[in-house]
Amino acid sequence: MSLSIEGPLNGIRILDVSTVIAAPFGATLLGDFGAEVIKIEMPNRGDSLRNIGPFKEEEPLRWPALARNKKSLTLDLHKEEGKKVLKELIRKSDVLIENFRPGTLEKWGLGYEDLKKENPNLIMTRVTGYGQTGPNSPKAGFGTPATAFSGFTYLHGYQDRPPISPSFSLTDYITGIYVAFSTMTALYYRDVNEEGTGQSIDISLYESVFRMLEFLVADYDQNKIIKERTPGLSGHSSPAGIFQTKDGHWMSLVTSSDTTFARLAEAMDREDMLVDKRYHTNVERLKRFEETNGIVADWIKQFTKVEIQRVLDQYGVPISPIYSIKDIFEDEHYKARENIVEVEHPRLGKFKMPGVVPKFSKTPGSIRSIGPDLGEHNDEILEELLQYSKGEINALKESGVI
């Protein structure tokens, strides 16, 4: 893999035949760092994400950022000519990312065993709700039900009310990170080992979240504790939670170690808590979680948002105001980090989207294009990459293949 000003993945070609969020987001992350990503969409219909809100009039507002750094090729994989074009692309590509239900591509003659005959070095990254194996594998896989299945939803909310699902597609985005991570791991193995070849990768939505719940597994295994839902962080660190300031702002504070609590106690002028056996360790404070949080809440209530931030920053205690998107747009740190960047949109003009993360010192990522119009790159890909003649391209258009 060569390096260039276009990013460390310049020279890697990825075919993205997935839809909506999880798998496409993983492809976008790889595209941010220079991979050439060809997004394959159904003719006249495209990715369902194009029709998911929010909108400005009829213009989708998620699409430009979530599909950035991609080229759009329309291709009907139900048709034999469409399958033929895909196989030609496979021969010239490094990665295929897909999120059809298990067995769908196999039914079309496009499973991993079929495609590796075209390119034994192909990495095939497969995203489903419940994985390629197991009794739930045939089920429809969407982020919200998969989040519930993972055990995550059970933990959130108040015990006298229904559990709360995340207010955005959290599981899909987490899975997208696994897509990028696992694809790069497979590429590394392929390219640095003499015996390295392609392989398939099996990623499920629910497992991406379940992997983060090791505390839940250990506590049930060893203590038979079924952790019930709470509205904030509990059972890990004390004090921790959401606290209100004198001027009505909400602040998030956590003390994840006894050392951090010692700094908080010093800031509150409550060093007595450091020798009091009820509070001197996190283990003891967790036994009195509400009581300890109450002491901190009463103290914070004496200060304004600006004052409490200044005081606890001085003592090295982790605290932050709870930001709305308006707060984020106005924040100087976000500006300094270029977390929000402005690009040109062909119909909306100036358009803001999240910047590229993480930041590389030598081979930074970039936003080279926003989410493409449907089929925008048909002629470029077919003519320049696959060497199709204009007559052949027109024939594919007339037959509805592209």
TrEMBL record:
KW Coiled coil (keyword) present: no
Superkingdom in the source lineage: Bacteria
Pfam families the UniProt entry points to: CoA_transf_3
InterPro entries: CoA-transferase_III_domain (IPR050483), CoA-Trfase_fam_III (IPR003673), CoA-Trfase_III_dom3_sf (IPR044855), CoA-Trfase_III_dom_1_sf (IPR023606)
Keywords on record: Transferase
Keyword Ribonucleoprotein attributed: no
Molecular function GO labels: CoA-transferase activity
Gene3D superfamilies: Crotonobetainyl-coa:carnitine coa-transferase, domain 1, formyl-coa transferase, domain 3
Protein known as: CoA transferase
Organism whose genome encodes this protein: Oceanobacillus bengalensis
Taxonomy of the source species: Bacteria, Bacillati, Bacillota, Bacilli, Bacillales
